Amino acid sequence: MSLAVELPGLSLKNPIMPASGCFGFGREYSEFYDLNRLGAIIMKAATKQARFGNQTPRVAETAAGMLNAIGLQNPGVDKIIENEVPFLANYATPIIANIAGSTLEEYKEVASAFNAVKEVAALELNISCPNVKEGGIQFGTDPEMAAKVTSVVKESSNLPVYVKLSPNVVDIVAMAKAVEQAGADGLSMINTVTGMQIHLPSKQPLLANQTGGLSGPAIKPIAIRMIYEVKQCVSLPIIGMGGITTAIDVLEFLLAGASAVAVGTANFQNPFACTEIIEELPNTLQTYGFASVKDAIGEGIK
Amino acid sequence: MMRKENMIIKHTRIIALDTIEMVLENEYISQNAVPGQFLHLLLTGHMLRRPISIAQVNKQENTVTILFKVVGEGTRTLASNSIGSTINALGPSGNGFPLEPNAHSTALIIGGGIGIPPLYYLANELTKKKINIVSVLGFQSKDYVFYENKFKQLGRSIIVTNDGSYGEKGFVTNVLDQIGAFDCFYSCGPLPMLKAITTQLKDIPGYISLEERMGCGVGACFACVIPAVPSGGYKKICHDGPVFHTKEVQLS
């Protein structure tokens, strides 16, 4: 059973990777299993300067999911390149750098910082973080802005660029087409869905940031629907994400049109989520009559 | 090192209003846990695990005792588990209290409400090292008081209730001037209490254990951070803590 998938810049031994922001820079989970087993690793978002992020509480549990408002906390792109990439470079697993910013200039600087880092195989362009006051989301909700930031990053980078789309839009297909025309090499979808929870004892929003991004199984149907729609209108490969916890979920994403997937919130419940899914996937594919991962991609679209 | 382990519930009982004591059996965690560490418990029907501190360990019987207060959906689910059933835990998690004072020195233990449990395991271990213990334990009211006799067996203890329905009336900080000399302190409880204590005892070496809503519980998600000293840095409560020296973190 072949689990291998070829994507722009990425030769994946299997289609499973931890999602950005849910896996730090890999060190913590490397104490549970060998990171060589993963298809790829998407690092936590990098910005130009270090960011502390939002006040706490930063997470809240919901039915079948969770809200988070971390706020892009990271040590800054230079420190990530200096301290985190060398650790991940010990593994034969492609590294995808997630990049974020508040301005076009910042995106450009962060993207170009990775040009000299041969261990990084691709960029995931975060235009859709809902949890920072400036930047991120406005690039992710306006097709023109999304196209602009995509072309700026493509011009400054020598790496394949996967644009991570926000579900918090009226027309996801318009967003996907805009970044495709701007030169994106692939799509990553979906980011979290903006939500809120009120804390009854205080009668106020529970998260210090008030709103947060909903993730987990609660958003899986939204992700499936959006991938299914986008796949029919653009020719870019899609890394799918949103509530994946099992190999069956992975197959659903493949059928909807994803070529690979990222696992996020499930890692918190089960640190072995990614490796258990990798172990389970061949059986699941076989059960539904597929001889490889490639055979299943887009098969749900008639 | 933390592992993902199944723990069997051996015993459970209500020890005060809304407060449950649960004894869990697991060899690896019981043999490796130190005072101040916690379990990150997976609860049926819940997306996020719940961090619960370790209140006592019995290495002969391979058991770990936890105490928790039923305050929301997660703790309600935890309380509904019956004896003989299994709970999945990541543990032992985090870093414990340094047991650094010399023998025959005096350590002050200051606990508030459901922050008291990790201090009980700590007090036992300090006593084994011939360190004198004085405990100040604060509760909302008489109905919430637990482990009074257990702490009394380890040394002098003072109970304080906010409403004066049992022991001294007021806050733990009201009685600190009755203690006499002590060499260091250890504290866990609500944030306002920790702030008051660390201000009042700023010249004495002390360790505090912090809590926060957690995501992964292993240091990867950055949900449970606290500003560090010097300013600009941060610590992850689950991974760098939950125990910190008072001079390491800024309580807001």
Automatic annotation (TrEMBL), chain A:
Keywords: Cytoplasm, Flavoprotein, FMN, NAD, Oxidoreductase, Pyrimidine biosynthesis
Primary subcellular site in the record, as a coarse category: cytoplasm
Catalytic activity: (S)-dihydroorotate + NAD(+) = orotate + NADH + H(+); (S)-dihydroorotate + A = orotate + AH2
Record: residues binding substrate: K44, N68, A69, I70, G71, L72, N126, N191, T192
Residues the entry annotates as binding FMN: S20, K44, A45, N98, N126, K164, I190, G216, G242, G243, G264, T265
Keyword Flavoprotein attached: yes
Keyword NAD: yes
A Pfam family hit: DHO_dh
Co-factor binding details: Binds 1 FMN per subunit.
Pathway of action: Pyrimidine metabolism; UMP biosynthesis via de novo pathway; orotate from (S)-dihydroorotate (NAD(+) route): step 1/1
Cofactors that this protein relies on: FMN
Active-site residues per Swiss-Prot or TrEMBL entry: C129
Domain Dihydroorotate dehydrogenase catalytic stretches: 3-285
Position of the signal peptide: none
Subcellular location as annotated: Cytoplasm
Entry EC no(s): 1.3.-.-
SUPFAM superfamilies in the cross-refs: FMN-linked oxidoreductases
Subunit record text: Heterotetramer of 2 PyrK and 2 PyrD type B subunits.
Family: Belongs to the dihydroorotate dehydrogenase family. Type 1 subfamily.
Function: Catalyzes the conversion of dihydroorotate to orotate with NAD(+) as electron acceptor.
Protein name per the record: Dihydroorotate dehydrogenase
Organism, scientific name: Virgibacillus kapii
From TrEMBL, chain B:
Residues in FAD-binding FR-type domain copies: 1-99
GO MF entries: 2 iron, 2 sulfur cluster binding; electron transfer activity; flavin adenine dinucleotide binding; metal ion binding; oxidoreductase activity
Cofactor: [2Fe-2S] cluster; FAD
Record keywords, A-Z: 2Fe-2S, Electron transport, FAD, Flavoprotein, Iron, Iron-sulfur, Metal-binding, Pyrimidine biosynthesis, Transport
Pathways per UniProt: Pyrimidine metabolism; UMP biosynthesis via de novo pathway; orotate from (S)-dihydroorotate (NAD(+) route): step 1/1
InterPro entries documented for this protein: Cyt_c3_hydrogenase_gsu (IPR012165), Dihydroorotate_DH_ele_sf (IPR037117), Dihydroorotate_DH_Fe-S-bd (IPR019480), Dihydroorotate_DHASE_ETsu (IPR023455), FAD-bd_FR_type (IPR017927), FNR_nucleotide-bd (IPR039261), PyrK_electron_transfer (IPR050353), Riboflavin_synthase-like_b-brl (IPR017938)
GO biological process, one term: 'de novo' UMP biosynthetic process
Binding-site positions, FAD: R50, P51, I52, S53, G74, T75
Record bears the keyword Transport: yes
Positions with a binding annotation for [2Fe-2S] cluster: C216, C221, C224, C238
Domain of life according to the entry: Bacteria
Classification via SUPFAM superfamilies: Ferredoxin reductase-like, C-terminal NADP-linked domain (SSF52343), Riboflavin synthase domain-like (SSF63380)
Keyword Flavoprotein: yes
Family annotation (CDD domains): DHOD_e_trans (cd06218)
Gene3D superfamilies: Dihydroorotate dehydrogenase, electron transfer subunit (2.10.240.10), Nucleotide-binding domain of ferredoxin-NADP reductase (FNR) module (3.40.50.80), Translation factors (2.40.30.10)
Cofactor note: Binds 1 [2Fe-2S] cluster per subunit. Binds 1 FAD per subunit.
Subunit structure: Heterotetramer of 2 PyrK and 2 PyrD type B subunits.
Entry function: Responsible for channeling the electrons from the oxidation of dihydroorotate from the FMN redox center in the PyrD type B subunit to the ultimate electron acceptor NAD(+).
Record-linked PANTHER family: DIHYDROOROTATE DEHYDROGENASE B (NAD(+)), ELECTRON TRANSFER SUBUNIT, DIHYDROOROTATE DEHYDROGENASE B (NAD(+)), ELECTRON TRANSFER SUBUNIT-RELATED
Entry similarity comment: Belongs to the PyrK family.
Protein name: Dihydroorotate dehydrogenase B (NAD(+)), electron transfer subunit
Organism: Virgibacillus massiliensis
